[in-house]
Amino acid sequence: MNVLIIDDEPLARNELEFLLKQNIAVTTTYQAESIQEALDVILNKKVDLLFLDISLNNENGFKLANELNQLAVSPFVIFATAYSNYAVQAFDINAIDYVLKPFEQGRINQAIKKAQIAILNRDKQKKEQHLSEKNRFISIPTEDRTVVIKSNEVVAAVTENGLLSIYTMDNTYVSHETLSWLREYLDQQNFVQVHRSSIVNINTIVEVQPWFNHTFVLILTNKQRIPVGRSYLKNLKSILNM
Q1: Contact 215, 207 (CB under 8 A)
Q2: Pairing outcome for strands 198-201 and 191-195
Q3: Cβ(173)–Cβ(142) under 8 Å?
Q4: In this structure, are residues 226 and 193 in contact, taking their beta carbons and an 8 Å threshold?
């Protein structure tokens, strides 16, 4: 975690920096004594968290906190101040904590823990949003064109002789891409690999029938039959509650 300390008092900055460096979650610390210095650091460095004083010579820390809203991805803010009467205002602008001077190691560690949780939650949300947007469509390059389909329309996909066949209810699309390439565009909760050369949409499985060597063959909604490899049996049974 990269932390920027903004305080107009050098002793206060150094004291807080010392306490922050005792926490293993903190990898890098920066210092600034004014809003402009702070903005220069934020715009030129990767900053995850601010420890921000409210009184900065003739400036106010709330001004900087409000300006951060203009950034696409802004650092989280913890107010670190001698004034106790601004706490409500601080939390109104989504500060994740409010730490009073003089600083104590235990209290700083507690604030860092809150910041870690906030960062993890934001990263998880961004990842889920990215996957949701990415998984909506698949552009499939074929011999003479690129076909765009919705990912949830895929019934199954099979690789054979270096070619990838992607099956929907109504069509089959053949490409030189790989099964690994396709998996990147599929929702991992709905698509499962059942053979080293096959992926199926579990929502399209109609029947599971016995097959050679104590394995199964899947019957899908498009009447397709997909064998299940022995090494994939356990996972499939778990998913289908068999």
Answers
A1: no
A2: antiparallel
A3: yes
A4: no
Burial class (CB in 10 A: 0-12, 13-18, 19+), 69: exposed
Q: 204-223 pLDDT, tens per residue? A: 999 999 888 788 899 999 99
pLDDT digits (tens, 9 = 90+) for 158-177: 999 989 999 999 899 999 99
| Half-sphere exposure of residue 39: CA atoms within 13 angstroms, side-chain side | 13
Count CB-CB contacts under 10 A for residue 19. Answer: 19
Other CB atoms within a 10 A radius of the CB of residue 65 amount to: 22
Q: Exposed (0-12), middle (13-18) or buried (19+): which is 138, by Cβ within 10 Å?
A: buried
The owner of tokens 């601010």 is 50
Measure the CA–CA gap between 64 and 35, rounded to whole angstroms: 6
Which residues lie below 8 Å from residue 169, measured CB to CB, with a gap of 6+? 153, 155, 221, 222
pLDDT for position 129: 66
Residue 45 confidence (pLDDT) above 70: yes
Read off the amino acid at residue 90.
A
| Token duo for residue 57 | 């010579």
Average pLDDT of every residue of the chain: 90
- Which amino acid is located at 17 in the chain? E
This prediction has a pTM of 0.57
